[in-house]
Amino acid sequence: MKKMWMMVLAGAFAAGLVRAEEPPRVFALATAGDVEFELAERIRNYLEEYTGAAVRFTEPVDLAEDGNLEVTGRAAAETLKDDEFGIVVLARPTTDQPQGICLPHERFGILNLTRLGQDVEEDRLVRRAGQDGLRVMSMLVGMSPCPFPLCVLTYFNQTEDLDMMSGNFCPPCQDRFTRLAREEGILLIDREARAAAAVAAGPVEAGAPEDPDAPPAEAIPMPEPEPAAP
Ligand SMILES: [Zn+2]
C-alpha cells in the first residue's frame, strides 16, 4: 500500500507537478451573454494551444444588468471550483464597456467580445480574443507585460493594435508561463503528444462543404515570435 502511494507520488513528480498531493487544476472558461458555443470553443482551443495549459468550460454566467464587466467577472469568480485555478469570461455586453478587465487577486479576467469583434469577421475576433485571453491567463499566474515587441504580452494602445501583434508568447514568456503554471499545479497539455495523435488519426474530415467565397485560412497572419537579437 505504502509502496503504491510512493509510486503515485513519483509519477506525479515525473509529470512535473509540484503540488503532487492535490489534483491538477485547470483554467475555467465561461460565457456571459449571447456567445455562440462554436465561437467560444474556437477561443478555448486557441488558449490551450498557445499556453499549453488546460482550459475547461464551466457553466455560463449571467451578464450584470447594466452589462458591467467587473460585476459580471466577480460573479463568475464566485463559481470557481476547487480544481479551477482562475476563470476567463467571454462576455458580449450590449452596453459600452471596456475591452476587458483582469483582477488577478480575484482570480478572474473578462473579455469584451462586443468590442473585440466590432466590424471584423469571426476569424479576427477569435485571434483578438485569443491574444487578450493569453494576456489574462499570464496575469492570473502572476506575469507582467513583456518589453519584447514580438510578444503577445507587449504594450499596446487600442484594439486594432492586436492585429499587428504576435498571437503568441515569446519563448522566454512561454517558459515563464509554463514554470509558473507548473508551480500552481495547473494541468499542462502534452502538445507534442496531442499533435502526434492528430497525425495518427489522419486528416480531419471537414463538416461542411467548402465555400469557394470563404477567405483563405491564412487571411490573418499569425507571426511566430523570432528569437531576440543578440
Ligand atoms: Zn514575452
Largest sheet: 5 strands, mixed
Low-confidence stretches: 8-13, 205-212, 214-226
> How many discrete domains?
1
CATH class: Alpha Beta
Attached small molecules: zinc ion
Q: Which percent range fits the helix content? A: 25-40%
Order of the strands making up the biggest sheet: 2-1-3-5-4
> What's the average pLDDT?
85
What percent of residues are in strands? Answer: 5-15%
Rg computed from alpha carbons, rounded to a whole number of angstroms: 19 Å
Distance between the termini: 54 Å
Quickly give the CATH architecture. 3-Layer(aba) Sandwich
Give the overall shape, derived from the CA principal axes.
globular
* Beta-strand segment tally: 5
CATH topology, by name, is Collagenase (Catalytic Domain)
Written overview of the protein:
The protein is α/β, with parallel strands linked by helices. The chain has a single domain (21-199), classed as 3-Layer(aba) Sandwich (Collagenase (Catalytic Domain)). Helix content is 36%, strand content 13%. It has seven helices and five strands. The chain has helices at 2-14, 37-51, 69-77, 113-116, 122-140, 171-183, 191-200, and strands spanning 26-33, 55-57, 84-92, 100-103, 108-112. Strand 1, helix 2 and strand 2 form a beta-alpha-beta unit. The longest helix has 19 residues, at 122-140. The model is unreliable at 8-13, 205-212 and 214-226 (pLDDT under 50). Bound molecules: zinc ion. Residues 146, 148, 151, 153, 169-170, 172-173 line the site of zinc ion.
List keywords for this structure.
alpha/beta, five-stranded mixed beta sheet, 230 residues, Collagenase (Catalytic Domain)
